[in-house]
Structure formats: C-alpha cells, structure tokens
Amino acid sequence: MKIISYIEKDTETGLFIGIAPSVPGAYTQAATIEEVQKNLVEVIELCLQELTEQERQALPEFIAVQEVEVSL
C-alpha cells in the first residue's frame, strides 16, 4: 500500500515534521530527514493496524500536490 506523506522543517526547532494527511494520527518528527522518513513508515503502519478493513478502504485517494503563490 502506498500512502502519500510530506515533510516540513520547523523553523523554530529545526526538526523535520512528517505527516501522512490521509491517515488519522500519522505524524512524527525527527532531527534528520532520514530519521523522519523511517518514523513515518512506522507510524503509518501502526495507525493503519488500528483501522478496520472498511476504514482502510475508505482512505482518501491522492490526486495532486500543488504549490500556491499568494500575496500578503
């Protein structure tokens, strides 16, 4: 099963934050990208184990990522 996730860097702490938005509760943080990637796999697996088969089948389908430019 492939799950879409993304990683951001927290500017205050310097930590990398990993999130899988389609999986409830699937987020983690770490000091390195490699570590956060490893942690994401672990937390996604744990979160998916808590879901029923019906809930896993109902997870949103990934469509696209888009960068949006706004003016402030």
Task: Explain the overall architecture.
The chain is α+β, with helices and mostly antiparallel strands and 72 residues long. It contains 2 helices and 3 strands. It has a 3-stranded antiparallel sheet with strand order 1-2-3, with helices on one face.
Describe this structure in a few short sentences.
With 72 residues, this protein is an alpha+beta fold. The protein has one domain: Double Stranded RNA Binding Domain, CATH 3.30.160.
How do the strands and helices of this protein lay out in sequence?
Layout: E1 6-9, E2 16-19, E3 27-30, H1 33-50, H2 53-57
Antiparallel strand pairs: 1-2, 2-3
Keywords:
72 residues, alpha+beta, Double Stranded RNA Binding Domain, three-stranded antiparallel sheet, 3 strands
CATH class group: Alpha Beta
| Reported CATH architecture | 2-Layer Sandwich
The biggest sheet, with number of strands, parallel, antiparallel or mixed sense and barrel status, is:
3 strands, antiparallel
User: What's the pLDDT, averaged over the residues?
Assistant: 96
Number of helices: 2
From the 3D structure, determine the CATH topology. Answer: Double Stranded RNA Binding Domain
Ranges with pLDDT <50 over ≥5 residues? none
Distance between the termini: 39 Å
What structural category do the secondary elements indicate? Answer: alpha+beta
> What is the number of E strands?
3
Count of individual domains: 1
This entry's quaternary arrangement is: single chain
Helix content: 25-40%
Q: What order do the strands of the largest sheet run in, or round the barrel if closed?
A: 1-2-3
Q: What order do the helices and strands follow? A: EEEHH
Q: Tell me the Rg in angstroms.
A: 14 Å
State the shape: flat
